[in-house]
Design goal:
This protein has about 220 residues and is α+β, with helices and mostly antiparallel strands. It has one domain (about 15-215). Helices cover about 20% and strands about 35% of the residues. The protein contains 3 helices and 10 strands; from the N terminus they run E-E-H-E-E-E-H-E-E-E-E-E-H. Strands 3, 4, 5, 6, 7, 8, 9 and 10 form an 8-stranded antiparallel β-sheet that branches. Strands 1-2 form a two-stranded antiparallel sheet.
Length: about 220
């Protein structure tokens, strides 16, 4: 499944964290010109001018597995509109802390680019930034990254560790025509980061669930 092993324009998902009780969330905001398992997943067939509520797309069983007993709700301080929104599941007490977020963005086109071409360019820019880790803060480092086949039109995952916080964070970014789906999953087991394999598999499971729901919407 792996070929190797989350504000503002041009922001990197791994670096644009909103720190909440020691865990990171992400918000790509208006990046990319937004206006206002191994099973193959079919790509969306048509460009979209609006996206569904991210809180309704993720399978509850997957959310419960990744962030047990988590509180769910729209992300604070996120500029939601018809074209973009974000939902967060968080567990911020106890030894095993978790934060899971799903962000949906329908990228608008320009005079020079179709919506899909604009989304493709945004995706490439974000992938380059995420895989390089150029915007990570001190104490954070990328330990794994991979391009993912069979998920949307194109997808990748990246995992990083924050040594100072003792936490790990995985990001899966998926493009379906002009829609970008970004899943961020972070947390710790006591004083240790969540395991790499569990984090990367969890983000892909969540992303695949959202993609399947999006294709049916």
């Amino acid at each position: 499944m792996l070929l190797g092993v989350a504000a503002g324009a041009g922001a990197c998902a791994l670096a644009a964290f909103v720190v909440i009780s020691g865990l990171g969330g992400h918000d790509r905001g208006t990046s990319g010109q937004v206006v206002g398992s191994t099973a193959q997943t079919p790509a969306a067939k048509a460009e979209k001018t609006a996206v569904p509520d991210a809180c309704t797309l993720l399978d509850s069983k997957i959310a419960d597995r990744l962030a047990p007993h988590a509180e769910r709700g729209p992300a604070d301080n996120y500029a939601s509109n018809d074209r973009q929104n974000q939902c967060v599941w968080g567990v911020y007490s106890g030894e095993d802390q978790r934060q899971l977020s799903v962000e949906m963005r329908a990228i608008a086109g320009t005079q020079a680019q179709s919506p899909t071409d604009a989304a493709r360019a945004a995706f490439v820019s974000e992938r380059t930034a995420d895989e390089s880790g150029k915007a990570l803060i001190g104490g954070q480092e990328i330990t794994d990254k991979a391009r993912v086949n069979g998920l949307g039109d194109e997808a990748y995952v990246v995992y990083s560790v924050d040594k100072d916080q003792g936490s790990g964070a995985a990001v899966a970014n998926v493009r379906l025509a002009n829609v970008l789906v970004t899943v961020h999953y972070s947390g710790s087991d006591g004083s240790d980061p969540i395991p790499t394999g569990a984090a990367l598999t969890g983000t892909q499971d969540a992303a695949r669930s959202v993609v399947e729901a999006l294709n049916q919407s």
